[in-house]
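Put briefly, the fold is written as integer tokens. One such record reads:
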Amino acid sequence: MSKKIKPNLSMAQIINMSMGFLGIQMAFGLQNGNASRILGNFGADVHELSWFWLVAPITGLIVQPIIGHMGDNTWSPLGRRKPYFLIGAILCAIGLVLLPNAASATQMMAANVLLLAVIFLAMMDASINVAMEPFRALVGDMLPKHQGTLGFSIQTILIGIGAVIGSYLPDWLTKLGVSNVAKEGFVADNVIYAFYCGAVILLLTIIYTIITTKEYSPKEFAEFDGGKEIVEQPSKFSDIFNDFAKIPTIMKKLGIVQFFSWFALFTMWVFTTSALATHHFGLSPQDTHSVAFNKAGDLTGKLFGIYNLWAIPFAFLLTPIAKRIGKKQTHAFALACGGLGLISMYLIKDISLLWISMIGLGFAWASILAMPYAMLIDAIPQRKMGVFMGIFNFFIVIPQIINGVFGGLIVKGAFGNYAMGYVVVGGICMLLGAALTMIFIKTDDSNSHEIEEEIQQVHF
């Protein structure tokens, strides 16, 4: 039986099936912009922050391959991927409500506030990963391969919109009169209410995608996959290791690039608040409660919103740029811009000009969310879309785990707890990622024969 080609989807259909990513990224933006600030409010020292942030990559390492494998081998009346991101969204919304209220919960439960906050953070991270992985696989499921770049670009645009809203919400609420100052050991009201808004929007966008998107049936997948119908099978954890042994060569090469890209991103997310507080506001590393520190926290959220804002127009340009100069050249250019953006944060002392640094980071973020997946999708067999997308996540979380273990120690030992120097290290890592993209990744045309051979090897 010959393969049937998937029909092209309209722009509206691609937006509908990716809308839930807006809510997921809003939650992620709230976490990225405020988790270090919240943990600092609860008494964490700057060199401890990366250890607490280990929760996110560790849960991703465990959860995403499992959810991908389960999605590949199950079917329900709701669909193939939709049950998982619905469950993830519900649990994440609960985590969004609980995390900023850990201090109040501690009083009721007589527990350690940092321990409870980390538990709530772990709940959020695990839930975000449960919801996020199926959306990546859904693009591979629903779109013909020539629409892959467009699909991931649309996801990136919606991710940018969600992250902008999540990053700016605390500051917007402050301007509306909500307090951004809290007594020692508690979180400011503007952050708490922003997390509440994030929980509501997350649920609404996920439900919208579920209502407006119809997944292909097992019979339809069989037609797209040469006649072998995708049926429900027992999900064995050991199968993930078998699949890992058969990952395509291009995934390994992209994994090296991903290592340096995500090492840099993790550095930025964890240490920007402390870096701004000490480098631009002149605070000591021990100051994690003052009005100035909370202003640094608000500024971090705004800057993260700005780089996500710049990611939106660049995401629109990814497809035409990639068609003109190639996918790997596009990705290398974007990573180089991001590396220079991080380094420039050290050089720009006027906080009103730091938005300039965010331009390059926006370009890098847009490309990181789209181009590696667009380069990878051609090498993944349809039957293994979920699990391979989950395995690819290893190359995202492992650098974050390494950074989480050693980053705080480096900031303390090499930079005396003044984190801006380590942000510069992150910029250098992103520049290395750009160089390695050009060195390791073959051009699109020369890679096609290799990809076809590898699909045949893992197609079972």
